[in-house]
Amino acid sequence: SGGNSESRGALVVLEGLDRSGKTSQSSRLLSYLEGLGHSAELWRFPDRSTDVGQMISSYLSNKSQLDDHMIHLLFSANRWEKRSLMETKLKTGTTLIVDRYSYSGVAFSSAKGLGVEWCKAPEVGLLSPDLILYLDIQPEKATERGGYGGERYEQLEFQKKVSQCYQVLHDASWKIVDACQPMKDIEKQLQELVLECVMTCQKGKPPANLWS
Ligand code: TMP
Questions:
Q1: Where in this chain does the record put each Thymidylate kinase-like domain (predicted)?
Q2: In the chain, fewer beta carbons within 10 Å around the N or the C end?
Q3: How far is ligand 1, taken at its centre, from the CA of residue 148, in Å?
């Protein structure tokens, strides 16, 4: 609805630990934007619907074992296979709310001990987000929320390392939102940030590639 072909959509990324609330907040953001008449879609990575996504899914559910470098490159490939569609959507005025992106790729793989620069390399040339929202939660608090689905990375000790890796990655442009506030408050803060970003992109802010 309401896609203005003159203006581009915004690329909005949500990042955070497992159980930080990204997925619920992403769908709320989608409803919010649609309610305002904006053209918007909800995306997520990994996108498990593709062949590469199936390999990732099988790895995450411990049905297959893969070398750490190999799975890193598969996560990256899974973004590359969606890059041109992503670009088309943005160019034609659709805002994308993306649940995890390259920063998950780097944070989770570097938490295993792979070098940050090595992890970033295959992401170079993907589209750079217009807004990165980080849902900030202590690993212990996330664990308390329960509902870890038993996937490979859903363990407190590992999430602590991921949390540290996110700290290294983020810069001043990231919007850090306290994920332990009441849901409604988080929702409100995200809405304001996203709306401002959507407006800026509509006004002609040029798109960019990673890492910039
Ligand atoms: P999900 O629970 O959001 O579907 O993500 C699955 C897991 O994959 C989650 O623990 C984060 C991890 N992950 C990576 O390790 N690298 C990536 O590039 C992405 C997108 C996710």
A1: 14-189
A2: C
A3: 13
